Amino acid sequence: MPRTATPNLSAADDPSLANRERVRADFATVASHQLRTPISIMRWALDMVLSGRGGRISIKQREYLDRAYQQNLFMARLVGDLLRISRIDEEGVSVVSAPVNLTALVNTVMRDESLLARAYNCTLRVSAPRNFPTVVTDALKLKEVIGVLVDNGIRYGRREGHVLVALQRRRGAVVISVRDRGIGIPARQQHNIFTKFFRAENAIRSQTEGLGVQLYIAKHYVAALGGTIAFHSVYRKGTTFTVTLPLRSSGPNGGAVSVPSLSRVVSTELRRLSYHLSDGMAFLDPAFRILEINTSARKILGVNGDVTGRHIGDIVDTVELRRFFKRRTAGEESLVVPLRLSEDAQPTPFTFFLMPVRQQDVITAWMLMIKETFAHHRADVVAAERIRREREFVSITVHELNGPLSVNKWSIEMLHRETTGKLNAEQRRLVDQLQRNNDRQLVLVKDLLNLAKLQQGRFSILPQMTGITPILSDVIAGFRTKAKAKRLRILWSSRQKLPKVRVDVGRVSQVVSNLMSNAIKYTPTGGSVRIKTRRIPGPKLRKVARELGVTINHTDSPDGYLVISVQDSGMGIPPNQMRKLFTMFFRSQAVLKAKIEGTGLGLYIAKAIVELHQGDIWCTSTMGKGSTFSFSLPLA
Amino acid sequence: MAGKKKSILVVEDDKNLVRLLKDAFEGAYDVSLALDWQEAKARLARMIPDLIMLDILLPGESGFDGLRQIKSNPALRGIPVIILSNLGQEQEIRTGLELGAMDYLVKADISIEEVVKKVKAVLAPTKSTKRKK
Hints:
The complex is a heterodimer of chains A (about 625) and B (about 130).
Chain A: H1 17-50, H2 59-91, E1 98-100, H3 102-119, E2 123-127, E3 135-137, H4 139-155, E4 162-170, E5 173-180, H5 201-205, H6 212-224, E6 228-234, E7 238-246, H7 259-274, E8 280-284, E9 290-293, H8 295-301, H9 312-315, H10 319-326, E10 333-339, E11 348-359, E12 362-372, H11 378-416, H12 425-455, E13 464-466, H13 468-485, E14 489-492, E15 501-503, H14 505-521, E16 528-536, H15 538-548, E17 561-568, H16 575-578, H17 589-593, H18 602-612, E18 617-622, E19 626-634
Parallel strand pairs in A: 2-4, 14-16
Antiparallel strand pairs in A: 1-3, 4-5, 5-7, 6-7, 8-9, 8-12, 10-11, 11-12, 13-15, 16-17, 17-19, 18-19
Chain B: E1 7-11, H1 15-25, E2 30-34, H2 37-46, E3 51-54, H3 63-71, E4 81-85, H4 90-98, E5 103-106, H5 112-123
Parallel strand pairs in B: 1-2, 1-3, 3-4, 4-5
C-alpha cells in the first residue's frame, strides 16, 4: 500500500539541506501568497466604507477606518517583502569577494529601482567620478545594500523628489552615499533605526509603509563586508545614508570607532535577539573584556552576577577555555570543548566561535557564539546555525504579522459594536467583511507558525491520561452557533462510555476542531454533521483499512484504538484529490470554486498531531453525499 | 478616595494600540503611555499607577527586564502588572507569570472587550486596601 507523505518531524537531524531550503521557501512563499487575498479584500472593503459609498461615516469612525487602512498597507508591504527577507536571511554572513566595478553596480541598482521610482514620481541620479577604483568585495551583497537604501529613499521621499547616489574616494576606502529629500527620521528614533522591524512613526502617519528589516539587513551586510554604515537625518528635510567600504577586505587602515557607541547598539540588538537564541552569545571589547552576555551563555559557562568589564578568560572554569581566551588572536577562531551543565549531567560538546567585528579593518569588538555541537563536523554546525536563523525568522515574522492584525482586530471590534458610531446595513456588511478577513489572516498566521514548528521538529505534545468525551464536548459546544446559523444538525451521543486515552488535550482538541470546522464549512445549509466514537482492536483496524482502501500504519496497540469520526453531508471530495488531502495547502477545486475560506493547512497539521500520538487519520468520501474524516488514538 | 480616577501606565511601542485602549476605557481611567522601558522608569519615578500594562518586545530593555525591575523594587512591587503581548509561546507565558505578572494576554487571541473586562476586574474598588495576593 502506498505510504502517504509524512511530514518530516525531526528536521533538526535531517541532513537533507535541499529539504530544508524547500521548507524555508515554503514558509515565506506561502505566507505571502496566502495572506495576499484577505489583505486585498480588506483594502477593498475599507476603500468602500471610507469613500462614503456605503453611507456617511462619523469622524470617530473615520479615525478607526483610517487606522485599519494604515495597518493594512503595512501588512501588504510586510508580506510583499517576506520573500525578500527570507532569501537574504538565508545567505547569512558568508562573503564572496571579487573585484567589482562600483559605478556599474550602482547603475544596475538604479535600473532595477526605476519602476518604483516612476511610480513615486521620483528621479534617480548617480554621481561618480571618472576612473573610480575597483573595490574587492561581494557584489551581490553590496547590490542588495544599495538597493535597500535607494528603495527607502524612494518610498520615504516626497512626491517629485529625488534620490542621489554619490561615490567618493577616500584614503584606502570608498564612500557610497544615498541621499533623499524625504520625510526624515525624528531625532528620538534615530537610535533605533537599524534594529529589526523598526518603523518610524511619521512614516506610518504619512501613509508610507516602512520596514525596518531592510535596514537591519543592510547593516549586517555592510559589517560582513568590513565596512560601516551611518546616516544623517533631518526631520522633514531628508536623510543621507553613508556606507564606507575598505578598498579591499584585508590590510590595516586608520579610523578607530568609539567602542561605547558600538556597545550601546550591540546591547540593544543582543537583548532583542536573546529570547530566540538558545545559543550562548557574548560581545567582548578588543581586550576580551565582556561588554554583553546573554542568558544562554551564562547558563553554559556557569556565570552568576554582573561580569561586565571582566576578562572572559577569568570567568570560565575550564583550562582549555582559559587558554583559548588568554591567547592573542587576530582572526576567527573556534574550539570544541565538552562541558558539564550540571553536577550529574553528561558532558556535552560545545563549540566556541570567536569572530572579530571590524570597522575599517580595526577590530573594535569580538563576538562569541557558543553552540551545542551534535557532531564535531563544521557542516553540522553550519546546518544548526541555519536552523536557528530559520526559527528566529519565523518567530519574529509571526510576531510582526500579529502586530497590525491585533490592532485591526480591536479597531474592527469597536467599529462593529458601534461605539464609534452607528452603521447602516451596507456599512455593517462591509465591516463584517473586514472582520472575517482579518480573522482569516490571524488564523493563517497561527497555522503558519504551527507549520514552521512542525517542519523544524519543534512541534511537541504533552500527553496525559484523559477521557475523550470532555474534549469532544467542549469542541462541539464551540461550534453550535455556527452550525445553527447554517441550520445544520450536529448529531453526537455524549453518553457513550469510552476508555481513557493518553493524549495532549490541546492538540487533540485542535484536530477535532479542524475536522468540525471543515465539516460545517463544506456542508450546505440544512445538512448534518455526525460525530461517532468507537473502540476498534488493531486487527480489525487493518481490515477497515483494506476495505476502505486507505492507509493506516499504526495497528499494533495491544489494547486497540479509539477511532473518532466526523461525518458530514457536504459536497464530497473527488477521488483524484483524495491523495493530496493531507498535504500542505491542499484546497480542492470544488472548495475553491465555492470560494470557501480556509488555509489548507488544517489537515496537514491535524495529520502531524495524530501521528505524533502514534495514530492515523484518513478520509472516505462520496461525491454529492458527503465525507467522513476519521482518526485513531492508541488506547493505553 | 471617592471620585479619583484610577490610573494605568501602558508600556507599549505601538501607539495605535494605546489609542484603541484609551478609547475602549471610555475615560474611566487615567491612561498614560510609555513607548519604552526607559520612559516607563521615568514615569514610575514620578507617580505610582494602579495598574501597569506591559508589552514584551520593546525597543531597548524588554518587558521582562522591566518586570524584573518592578518586582525587585519595594516601592513598585505591589503594582499589579498585566502583560499584553503578541509573543504567545508557552515558554514566554510561563516566564511572564513566573516573574510575577498577574495575567498574560496575547493580543491576537483576545478581544478588546475581554481586555477591558480584565482591567476593570483588577481596578474594581475593593473594601480592603490590601494589594498583595
